[in-house]
């Protein structure tokens, strides 16, 4: 709509092609151009948009109107709720299902319950009620444990909050009462009292065993757990903790410090091992200098634990190989024959050239009587 005002208080309007002048009554008359538009016959090719709705429309006003239309369109899109029905449902990471529990091995019950709780905590949207938790857990019960839960499942429609299928705390308590070890706490306390860290081991393994035992024991209190933890540490870590300023308020704080100290200790051990491997080996000249004597030319001989040298049958003195008649013993004689050695002395020469043989000594005849040995 466009309002045109004339200087003399008259409003000049175009109606059906005629010019009309009216006296100004003190009020501004608003003219609707659609009311004065000529009627377009039905079926005519003349478009209504070809007729200007407002004459002499200012360009700035049109621009503002276009911006307002665009803004309203964006605002409508933001306000309109989106259709999320086709969006993929959020899924938690796949986790291993609990192992089945048949009720025969009491020490496996705590692992079964902990596995179920881990799944419940990881997927709270699906396990939002005790009933869903209990029904999921009962699907893994077999053997005597499965027979125990069967009567409750026969009345699965019971919605009483105190009913076992609708109360997770009751289900957990009954499971430990029927299938748990009645001496579980006492056994865990004994194991914790005897738990010791290996001197050369890693403290992370000690922490894992310690955590498992205190879970089975229950709440002893922070001070008692700190005392038990320190008692089982390796002496090398206790020595380093002695220089640590201040006391530890929580068990986790003490574990963190020992982990850091143990990591540094093992890193240092690796550095020492690497430095030893990089040392140059001793040269042959250095090894042979103190042995530059007549004994250095002797062949290498093995030594026993007491430092005495071993001698093979080849290195034995001749007296040990001779009998009372000054002849080789039978075993040595057979060996000498096989190896082509002297059958008299065992040397690497024929018997005819053996200087130890009396017949071969110069100045002695073959008929020289032999010295008789003692009977």
Strands, helices and their partners?
Layout lengths: L10 E5 L2 E5 L10 H4 L22 H21 L29 H14 L7 H9 L4 H12 L13 H12 L4 H11 L8 H15 L4 H10 L3 H7 L9 H28 L5 H5 L29 H4 L8 H10 L36
Antiparallel strand pairs: 1-2
Helix pairs in contact: 7-8
Describe the structure.
With 375 residues, the protein is mostly helical. The protein has 14 helices and 2 strands, in the order ββαααααααααααααα. It has a two-stranded antiparallel ribbon with strand order 1-2. Helix 7 (184-194) packs antiparallel against helix 8 (203-217). The longest helix has 28 residues, at 251-278. The protein starts with 10 loop residues before the first strand and ends in a 36-residue tail after the last helix.
Q: Quaternary state, please?
A: single chain
Q: State Rg.
A: 54 Å
Order of helices and strands: EEHHHHHHHHHHHHHH
Beta percentage is: under 5%
In what order do the strands lie side by side in the largest sheet?
A: 1-2
Helix/strand/pairing class, anyone? mainly alpha
Give unreliable regions as ranges: 1-38, 43-49, 84-90, 284-302, 304-313
Q: Roughly how many Å apart are the termini?
A: 157 Å
Number of helices: 14
Q: What's the β-strand tally?
A: 2
| Largest sheet report | 2 strands, antiparallel
Question: Mean pLDDT across all residues, rounded?
Answer: 73
Q: What form results from the Cα inertia axes?
A: elongated
As a percent range, the share of helical residues equals 40-55%
Protein name: Ty3 transposon capsid-like protein domain-containing protein
InterPro entries: RTL1-rel, Ty3_capsid
Biased composition (Acidic residues): 19-29
Biased composition (Polar residues): 283-296
């Amino acid at each position: 709509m466009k309002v045109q005002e004339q200087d003399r208080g008259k409003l000049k309007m175009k109606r059906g092609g005629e010019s009309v002048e009216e006296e100004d009554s003190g009020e501004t008359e608003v003219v609707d151009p659609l009311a004065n538009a000529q009627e377009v016959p039905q079926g005519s090719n003349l478009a209504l948009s070809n007729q200007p709705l407002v004459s002499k429309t200012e360009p700035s006003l049109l621009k503002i109107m276009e911006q307002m239309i665009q803004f309203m369109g964006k605002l409508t899109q933001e306000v309109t709720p989106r259709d999320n029905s086709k969006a993929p449902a959020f899924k938690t990471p796949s986790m291993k299902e609990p192992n089945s529990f048949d009720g025969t091995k009491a020490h496996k019950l705590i692992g079964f319950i902990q596995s179920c709780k881990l799944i419940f905590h990881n997927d709270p949207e699906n396990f939002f009620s005790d009933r869903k938790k209990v029904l999921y857990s009962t699907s893994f019960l077999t053997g005597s444990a499965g027979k125990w839960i069967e009567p409750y499942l026969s009345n699965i429609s019971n919605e009483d909050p105190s009913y076992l299928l609708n109360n997770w705390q009751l289900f957990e308590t009954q499971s430990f009462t029927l299938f748990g070890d009645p001496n579980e706490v006492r056994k865990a306390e004994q194991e914790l009292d005897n738990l010791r860290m290996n001197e050369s081991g890693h403290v992370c393994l000690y922490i894992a065993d310690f955590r498992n035992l205190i879970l089975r024991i229950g709440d002893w209190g922070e001070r008692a757990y700190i005392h038990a933890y320190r008692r089982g540490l390796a002496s090398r870590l206790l020595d380093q903790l002695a220089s640590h300023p201040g006391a530890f308020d929580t068990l986790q704080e003490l574990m963190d410090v020992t982990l850091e100290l143990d990591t540094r200790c093992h890193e240092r051990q690796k550095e020492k091992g690497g430095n030893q491997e990089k040392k140059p080996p001793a040269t042959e000249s250095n090894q042979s200098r103190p042995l530059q004597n007549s004994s250095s030319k002797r062949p290498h001989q093995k030594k026993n634990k007491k430092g005495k040298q071993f001698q093979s049958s080849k290195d034995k003195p001749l007296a040990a190989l001779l009998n009372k008649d000054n002849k080789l013993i039978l075993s040595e004689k057979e060996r000498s024959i096989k190896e082509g050695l002297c059958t008299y002395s065992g040397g690497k020469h024929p018997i005819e050239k053996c200087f130890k043989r009396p017949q071969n000594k110069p100045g002695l005849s073959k008929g020289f009587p032999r010295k008789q040995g003692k009977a």
